[in-house]
Amino acid sequence: MSDFTAxxxxxxxxxxxxxxxxxxxxxxxxxxxxxSTLGDxxxxxxxxxxxxxxxxxxxxxxxxxxxxxxxxxATRRPVLEPDLSATTGDRWPAALEALLxxxxxxxxxxxxxxxxxxxxxxDLSVDREHVLTVGQIRGAVELTxxxxxxxxxxxxxxxxxxGRADMxxxxxxxREVHQATGMVAAQLGVTVADALLVLQAHAYATERxxxxxxxxVIARRIDLDRPHGLES
Length: 232
Prior knowledge:
Helix 6 packs across helix 8 and helix 7 crosses helix 9 (about 210-220). It contains nine helices and five strands; from the N terminus they run H-H-E-E-H-H-E-H-E-E-H-H-H-H. About 50% of the residues lie in helices and about 15% in strands. The longest helix has 28 residues, at about 135-160. The chain has helices at about 5-15, 20-25, 50-65, 70-75, 95-100, 135-160, 175-190, 190-205, 210-220, and strands spanning about 30-35, 45-50, 80, 105-115, 115-125.
């Protein structure tokens, strides 16, 4: 088992609400880690930051609405900037200037998505020019996939606590929810647990119950394999 897999397993087994940043710091040669939700359906907010500099990296991008984290989520690909001083400024000019002023030398952003549900991004930062190896990038992707599940579940649990999301596990014994979960898992190529998170997230985003969304999935009135589960 690789160090990255062990770190991913540890993150997956951590209790709800646990800090996710240390798992990245334990296996990657970076000085800062920031994890944030971005845009719809969860809103934009910092989930965790390893230190004040990582928090500032997040704050800059959330305040300006631009930066490598937004680009990675939009393109569904990591954005790797090993030398910010050599980065062209036409993609996110205001964020680039602010990141350089904050003393950031390199930043690596990894998108968090589950199926077509956009969750947010993980930002890894270094205070100097730095290059990640191919193996380190793959490991960061592996950790980010686990972080996406943990962040989405945490956000939905928080929303459920004040009645904004349907997370009543007792209701999921019903046949249509199980059937829809299996259909979504097959469509998206994800685990059954992740498919249930997708159903829950879509229900939250559309202000409906999971049972109602499941019924529409079975009837093929919505297709969660399409962006935002657009109606057919």
